Amino acid sequence: MKRLIPLIGAVCALLFGIVTVTAQQQTPVPTLPLAPSPTMDPTFAVSPTPTLDPALVPEVTQEMVTPTLVPAPSISDAETEALPVLLRDRVDLDLLAEQIYGFAERPAGWTGEIDPNNSQLALLIRYDLELLAAARLGPDARPEGWFGGVVSVPLAFARDIRHDLELLADLVMGTATIRPAGWQGDDPLMRCDRTTQALITVLNAENYGFNIDFGQSGLCDALPIQIAQFVESQILQPPPLLTTADELNDFNSRQPFRAENYYVVAFYDRKARNRAGVLPEGTGFAPISRSGVEFSNMMLIEGNNFRIFVDYLTTSITTEQFYALPEMSEGTQVTLCNADWCGD
Questions:
Q1: What is the SS3 assignment for 243?
Q2: Which terminal residue of the chain has fewer beta carbons within 10 Å of its beta carbon, N or C?
Q3: Which among 246, 236, 225, 252 is positioned nearest to 306, based on CA atoms?
């Protein structure tokens, strides 16, 4: 009996704990009272959703939603015409730099640009040329006659680069007749001053021709003299233009020779590369000089509004008469063909 008393006490304590826990679980957790639902003030007016007048809304077009592609800067026709000159300039400029520095070194800032699609190609080549000249000669020293960078049309700008490049090459190589292997070169007239080049361009546009010995020394000194003499005699104070048949017949009668067949082909140059036309039968002319080149039959003749080259074998001039003519002077022979038959 005494042993049961502690056991009964333990059971009672256990039952009391279970009842207490159950009561705690059933007691609700206290909460705050719910706030009352808000009510709309009947005096408050709600504006309706705004609408746009369709007349004021611009029409959305395909152009407004399609992105506009802006084309990249393109090379103009004038730049395209100058491009072959520029590319030859670039090649020779690199060869000259290689001659001075070898393969590795270049002046500080050297661009080396050669992309033909670069619209700034001409300026970059000129920049590299000035760098090379400054590195070789000094910042402010340049060869006599140096053009420098002058704003002009693309072709003239490219020719100016060639002019100055040849001057620098003369100093580097020590002579005007020796160039590095692979040198492209260009028209020898580009070595002349701008005025001479401009005069030749103008006169050629007026159907005047020039037979130029590019190998002669002092070409750019001799050429202005020839041009001046020709302009003085043919433009400043030209011979009278024959307008009537009687005047023409009288002029032809005073010429020692006349074209006697339809095979007298006229040329602007001694090498017969640039054809001027065919002398009509009966056209009078006077021989002036003959080519001194061995086996050459070319003879310079003059007549009414023409001064051109022909093969003497197509004329009535004999071999003895041909060789009795003076040899044409070395250098520049200015020719023209403004007669009605020119261009035939």
A1: coil
A2: N
A3: 252
Q: pLDDT value at position 70?
A: 43
pLDDT at 110: 95
Number of domains in the chain: 2
Give the DSSP per-residue string, 33-91. PPPPPP---TTPPPPPPP---GGGSPPP-HHHHSPPPPPPP---HHHHHHHHHHHHHHH
Strands (DSSP E) along 111-263, which ranges?
208-212, 257-258
Residue 92 included in any domain: yes
In Å, how far are 102, 174, 209, 234, 335 from 227, measured between CA atoms?
Answer: 42, 30, 11, 10, 10
Rounded to 5 degrees, what angle do the CA atoms 220, 223, 227 make?
145
Last residue of a domain, one of 186, 216, 238: 186
Q: Return the closest-CA partner of residue 316 out of 243, 239, 261, 235.
A: 261
Asked whether residue 102 falls in the same domain as residue 207, the answer is no
Backbone φ and ψ of 31, nearest 5°? -130, 160
Q: How deeply is 127 buried, as exposed, middle or buried, from its count of CB atoms within 10 A (0-12, 13-18, 19+)?
A: middle
| Whether residue 207 is found in the same domain as residue 137 | no
| Among 222, 225, 211, CA closest to 293 | 211
pLDDT along the chain (344 residues), means of 10: 53 50 46 45 44 48 45 61 94 95 89 93 96 94 93 93 96 93 92 89 71 70 79 69 55 72 89 89 88 87 88 90 81 76 84
